[in-house]
Design brief:
Structural class: mainly alpha
Radius of gyration: 21 Å
Number of helices: 15
Helix content: over 70%
Largest sheet: none
Number of strands: 0
Strand content: under 5%
Order of helices and strands: HHHHHHHHHHHHHHH
Shape: globular
Length: about 325
């Protein structure tokens, strides 16, 4: 995916459990190293398979609907209500899943309509409708996520209504209640207490931590430090999602405009959360230890995940550039 100069841009004995732990980051203090290596390998394989399925089923319209506005509203709400950090990523996960399922459902309905009708026009109307509902759906996902991530700060419709008024968004309390029901029904009440991408970041940092020679590239760096730096950059990546992926498209093609014939193919790149997770870990390693540490971490991630080095380097370069951390 990346060109050959992308690396330069960065200058600037127990039976293991069949179910890996549902925590974002694990250490040798919690699990024997031999068992932990098996857990890491199995978890990475399962996450990669799930990620590949998502990319195969993605529709380019998803990113027209769920772009930066939804991300920023989720982040604002989580900050306003002082919710746990993982709440924002769980809410985002729910929002993504809802958008995809709703989009598939509505596009399926359109495909069955009268052949004489203008389906192009119907799709444009659908896009407009979903865009207008996007803020409400995103904030509804924060309500649901708050009940999953915390038993002390569950956000109800009344509390969310006051926040929506403060944000000058025009939705009623009744619409908020109905939206929560709509999201839960669309998701068939399948809501996880963990975030896919946080698990990806955590397991990748764990994989790096198991390679002692990598951590020794910079003696003062601990795996815990790398995890925190990676999550910080992941936070930034979502708040600047459009900018980063427009920059990546320019890096790949030399064009600032994503043409219609490339939109579907590029949607798969944008949907690759496995790649984004690896890039935030690489970015975190660059922040903590510079080029030598970053190169060692990317090489380690390549062996652990089979993600191409050039792809991780390219996304990392765009992330660091937009963050103002490199030229």
């Amino acid at each position: 995916m990346a060109d050959s100069q992308s690396n330069g841009r960065l200058n600037k004995k127990r039976k293991h459990s069949p179910n890996p732990p549902l925590i974002p980051f694990v250490t040798n203090e919690l699990w024997p190293e031999e068992e932990l290596e098996i857990i890491v390998k199995d978890t990475i394989r399962n996450l990669k398979n799930e990620n590949d399925k998502e990319k195969d089923n993605i529709h380019p319209m998803k990113f027209l609907i769920s772009g930066d506005v939804g991300f920023k509203l989720i982040w604002e709400a989580v900050k306003e209500f002082d919710l746990p950090v993982d709440c924002k990523f769980i809410a985002l996960e729910l929002f993504h899943k809802f958008v995809v399922k709703q989009l598939d459902s509505l596009l399926g309905y359109i495909s069955k309509t009268d052949k004489h009708k203008n389906k192009g026009k119907l799709i444009k109307e659908l896009e407009k409708r979903l865009r207008s509902q996007s803020p409400l759906r995103a904030l509804t996902c924060v309500m649901i996520a708050s009940k999953l991530a915390s038993n002390k700060k569950a956000i109800d419709a009344e509390i969310m209504y006051h926040f929506i008024q403060k944000m000058d968004i025009n939705f009623t309390k009744r619409q908020i209640v109905r939206s929560e029901t709509r999201v839960l029904e669309q998701l068939e009440y399948k809501c996880s207490h963990t975030s896919f991408i946080m698990v990806c970041v955590g397991i990748m940092v764990t994989a790096v931590g198991l390679k002692r020679h990598v951590i020794k590239e910079v003696k003062q760096v601990r795996a815990e430090h790398l995890y925190k730096a990676s999550i910080y950059l992941l936070d930034f990546a979502y708040l600047n999602h459009d900018k980063i992926y427009k920059e990546l498209f320019y890096l790949i093609t030399g064009s600032r405009v994503i043409s219609e014939n490339l939109r579907t193919a590029y949607a798969r790149v944008v949907a690759d959360r496995f790649l984004l997770a690896a890039s935030t870990v690489a970015g975190g390693s660059w922040v903590l230890g510079g080029n030598a540490f970053c190169s060692a971490v990317i090489s380690c991630l390549n062996r652990a995940t089979n993600l191409p080095v050039e792809d991780v380097e390219s996304v990392t370069a765009c992330l660091l550039h937009i963050a103002g951390l490199s030229e």
